[in-house]
Structures are given as structure tokens and as C-alpha cells.
Write a structure and sequence with these properties.
alpha/beta; about 50% helix; about 230 residues; Uracil-DNA Glycosylase, subunit E; six-stranded mixed sheet; binds uracil; 11 helices
């Protein structure tokens, strides 16, 4: 292939996110059960029970289901969203609504799927009317999220949206300033590479921003090659 053609393809893959985030729907069911180390499975179950036992929480009182996680607990990539919406509350799994469908397509574009990523949220119960979780709610659920990260031990954390970014990075910056760079973080003494990107719900409202999330996804693809 000549140089000019290679450059052209690179350029198109950078800007033509509509081709890259394909319109075809992705089957997120029947992925098969991953084999999870006994200890890890036990610790995840314990954490789920601890969250299930939370008392005096408005989020929990208004929700139908605990939304714990989806994906592969052995994954190198852990994705953290904000909190469950109506579909997630109904099904008990994160990112199953429209934003989740877009997330599946984004992952698919870099050859990832729920088979090889692990997904959770900052809060595990749906905030009423899909409002953002309050600071108090985020602080209440943060120790559980940190424990979750410690159990999974991912190499890479993708923080989707400002709630996840603020909770983990403890900053109040805007996503557009923070996205697209690697930030090394320490969670419960465990070092991980993190990257911030736009939340898929935001991308549904602002599709012209997908070109930036495509850059972030490619950074993850590259980093995965190095940390594997
Ligand atoms: N948005 C999120 O942040 N998390 C979900 O699970 C669904 C939508």
C-alpha cells in the first residue's frame, strides 16, 4: 500500500466515527460465563452483599434493583459510569439502555466487548428521575467502588463522564480538558492507568464529539498492547 493511501485511511479512521461505531446492533447476551478465580468471585459476592445491606439510602429506597456490574472480572479494562438509569434498574445490569448500546459499539470498534471488559458505576442504585448522584451519595458509595477496583485489579480504568472522573480523580475539571490523557492513579495502594472520556449518553446528544472519544478509544487499544 502506498504512503498516501495509508495516510488517507488513517485520516478517515480518525474522523469517520459513523463508520467505526457501526450501526449494527451487538448481541450482549450468551457471552458465556468467564472462569473467575475462587477468591475473586468470593470477594465480589461479599462486596455485592455489603452494598445490598446498605441502610438509610434514598437511592436504594427508590430503586428496584441493585446494579452491581457486567462483563469479565478478569478483564484488564474496567469501565466506570455514573449510575443506573431506568433500563439498568429494571434489568439489574449496567449500561443496557441506549447509552449502553453505544458503549458496546465503541468497545467493538477496538475489538473489545463485555467478554473482555468489566463495567460498573459510581453508585449502584438508580438516582430518581435520572438525576446525577449528589456529592454525599458519591462519597457514600466511593469506598465500595474502591473495593470493587481493588478486587478486579484492572490495568486500565476508563472513566466515563464527570461523575466518574470527579469521584476517582477528585477534581472538578471539565471532561473536554481532562479526556485523552493517561493519568496514573492509586486506589487502595494499587496503581492503575486511568483515562477520562465522554459518557455515551452525552455522545448521543452531541454526536459530533464522537471523534474525540474515538481518539480516547484508540489510546486504550494502544495501551492494552503495552500492558498485556
Ligand atoms: N449511564 C451510566 O452511567 N451507567 C449506566 O449503567 C447506564 C447509563
Amino acid at each position: 500500500m502506498n504512503n498516501k493511501l495509508t495516510k488517507l485511511i488513517k485520516y478517515y479512521s480518525l474522523i469517520n466515527h459513523n463508520l467505526i461505531f457501526s450501526n449494527k446492533s451487538i448481541n450482549r447476551y450468551n457471552l458465556g460465563q468467564p472462569i473467575v478465580q475462587k477468591d475473586k468471585a468470593k470477594n465480589l459476592q461479599k462486596l455485592r452483599e455489603e452494598i445490598n445491606e446498605i441502610k438509610n439510602c434514598k437511592l436504594k429506597e427508590n430503586a428496584s434493583n441493585l446494579v452491581f456490574s457486567d462483563g469479565n472480572p478478569n478483564a484488564k479494562v474496567m469501565i466506570i459510569g455514573e449510575g443506573p438509569g431506568a433500563n439498568e434498574d429494571k434489568e439489574g445490569f449496567p449500561f443496557v439502555g441506549r447509552a449502553g448500546q453505544l458503549l458496546d459499539k465503541m468497545l467493538n470498534a477496538i475489538n473489545l466487548s463485555r467478554k473482555n471488559v468489566y463495567i460498573t458505576n459510581v453508585v449502584n442504585y438508580r438516582p430518581p428521575e435520572n438525576r446525577k448522584p449528589t456529592e454525599t451519595e458519591v462519597e457514600r458509595y466511593l469506598p465500595y467502588l474502591k473495593k470493587h477496583i481493588e478486587i478486579i485489579k484492572p490495568k486500565i480504568i476508563l472513566l466515563l463522564g464527570s461523575t466518574a472522573m470527579n469521584a476517582i480523580l477528585k477534581n472538578a475539571d471539565v471532561i473536554s480538558k481532562m479526556r485523552g490523557k493517561w493519568i496514573e492513579i492509586e486506589v487502595n495502594k494499587f496503581k492503575i492507568f486511568s483515562i477520562v472520556s465522554f459518557h455515551p449518553a452525552y455522545l448521543l446528544r452531541q454526536p459530533d464529539q464522537k471523534k474525540f472519544s474515538w481518539i480516547d478509544l484508540k489510546m486504550i487499544r494502544e495501551k492494552l498492547r503495552k500492558v498485556s
